[in-house]
Amino acid sequence: MIKFKNVSKSFGNIKALEGISFEVEKGEFVYITGPSGAGKTTILKLILRELQPNSGEIVLDGVDITKLADEQVPFYRQKIGVIFQDFKILTERTVRENVEVALAVTNVPQEEWAGRVNQVLKLVGLSERATLFPNQLSGGEIQRTAIARALVVNPKLILADEPTGNLDWETADALMDLLEKINKEGKTVIMATHNEMVVEKYKKRVIKVKEGKMASKEKAPHMEKEPKKEENKEENEEKPKLKVKVEEV
Fold first, then answer.
1. Mean pLDDT across the stretch 177-187?
2. What is the mean pLDDT of the chain?
3. What is the CATH number for 148?
4. Does residue 239 form part of some domain?
5. Structural domain count, the chain
6. Which tens digits make up the pLDDT trace of 184-211?
7. How far does the chain reach from its first CA to its final CA, in angstroms?
8. CA 6: distance to chain centroid?
9. Collapsing DSSP states into helix, strand and coil, what is residue 160?
10. What is the mean pLDDT of residues 241-248?
11. Neighbour count for residue 114 (Cβ, 10 Å)
12. 234 is a domain residue
């Protein structure tokens, strides 16, 4: 679904990313990990087309998004739901109104808004909070409002930028349960995080970046198999070959 091919991005003399390459398949849940300043958020902004790389290709659904005309970008972004660390919730709007904001920039007919909003609020457990304002909500409820807003446009892809960063563990745990549920319903999820507790408990594929470079990347679980070990010729002559069961990781 998404392919980065030798992508580099600089801000002046600072190299934010250098030669980054990876692929994410449809329906995957992938962590992008690394210390602060490693380039995690830059990767998400490149996917969202908030930034353009200095070199390389970024392909989504077979289209190199670096070559999109400016007028095409708003339509492209309708495929993507974004969950920010700082929520970006409008304080003067109710929960329902915050979710409707995402629909206001789409071509979804207004008569369909109520049904869509009701559906996503039910999914995130906020149906009874629809008329409340952000200052009447807990941190977890505000984050779930942000998730509902991301989902209401029925995106193919969810980008989550440190979504547990400002939450206590219990609230973060509940948030991850919700993201897993969303992923199991077919949404592709790419989550930038340095929360090792989350990565350890909710085991997903991990792409690691460090100082703007690829530190390590795992293959999709169904693609990755244990490599065959080379056998010593002398040992082969003395011992019968053993059949080794190859298991998927």
1. 91
2. 86
3. 3.40.50.300
4. no
5. 1
6. 989 999 999 988 899 999 999 999 999 9
7. 21
8. 20
9. strand
10. 42
11. 11
12. no
